[in-house]
Design goal:
This protein has 255 residues and is mostly beta strands. Helices cover 13% and strands 45% of the residues. The chain has helices at residues 2-5, 15-19, 73-79, 126-131, 139-142, 213-220; strands spanning 12-13, 29-30, 36-44, 47-54, 57-63, 70-72, 82-90, 96-109, 112-122, 135-137, 146-150, 155-159, 175-177, 183-190, 194-200, 227-234, 238-239, 242-243, 247-253. Strand 3 (36-44) and strand 4 (47-54) form a beta hairpin. The protein is globular and about 55 Å long. It starts with a helix and ends with a strand.
């Protein structure tokens, strides 16, 4: 199962494809005003899996803040949702293909109903079979929510009322959303030199901090922020459209 554990769907939506008809992932939302849901989840090989209901039937979705909401082609056939557009997308390995974009009239997460949520349709693949899931709760569904993940109790809280959580402003970090509401934060890295790094908060990944090969080569390799502990050749990621090409991979250390 290790090969599956490194999977993450990371979409880069090409703006010109979506803009043709003014369609955006950032539409739809909660059917109610204030909402507060406490939702149990399963941790399966590092993936956060929650129960949702659509049209009165239960389904299992992976919580993936690094991607927009998506459903399997099998669920698409069962629901027959309205098709919005066919758009060009790119996965974590920058492999491109066209996928249907549909509108989910209602999806219930905990005791909160979200309506008219745009979602991509993904062909059946080993991810759905391995984790026995039907789709992904993505960043666009969560864009107006506060998300709290408690790994000790295996519960999520999804709410739009910050007073429910007793948040401490001193422990906060600035956050901004990209065009599909992917959440980005900035962290500080320190070795003999210091650097800042802008990161996607991606709950579909397993580690606390993952550095892309492209980012390492373009931003950090020349500056000695990371110590190289080893090199090898291979592919370490599986994206939406399959495994990445073989490249030099690094094992790095950051104090």
């Amino acid at each position: 199962m290790k090969a599956f554990a490194i999977f993450s769907i990371l979409f880069i939506i090409l703006k010109e494809s979506v803009a043709q008809k003014g369609i955006t992932f950032n539409s739809g939302g909660s059917a109610s005003g204030k909402y507060y849901s406490v939702i149990p989840y399963q941790d399966v090989n590092g993936k956060i899996i929650v129960a949702v209901s659509i049209a009165g039937k239960p389904y299992r979705f992976i919580l993936d803040t690094g991607a927009p909401t998506a459903i399997s082609s099998r669920l698409f056939e069962a629901l027959n949702p309205s098709v919005l557009e066919k758009i060009l997308v790119s996965d974590a390995n920058e492999t491109k293909d066209s996928l249907l974009m549909v509108s989910l009239s209602e999806i219930n997460v905990g005791n909160t109903a979200f309506i008219n949520i745009p979602a991509l349709v993904i062909e059946q693949n080993f991810i759905f079979e391995c984790f026995q899931v039907d789709g992904f709760i993505g960043s666009n569904l969560l864009r107006n929510s506060i998300l709290q993940i408690n790994s000790e109790t295996h519960t999520l809280i999804i709410t739009n009322d910050d007073k429910e959580l007793g948040l401490d402003q001193k422990q906060s970090s600035k956050l901004f959303l990209d065009n599909q509401s992917g959440p980005y934060i900035t962290v500080r890295l320190q070795n003999k030199k210091k650097a800042t790094h802008q990161l996607l908060f991606d709950s579909g990944m397993d580690g606390l901090y993952d550095l892309s090969l492209k980012q390492y080569r373009t931003s950090f390799e020349k500056h000695g922020i990371f110590e190289v502990k080893g090199k090898t050749t291979g592919s370490t990621t599986t994206g939406l459209f399959g495994s990445g090409d073989e490249q030099i991979q690094y094992r790095l250390h950051l104090p």
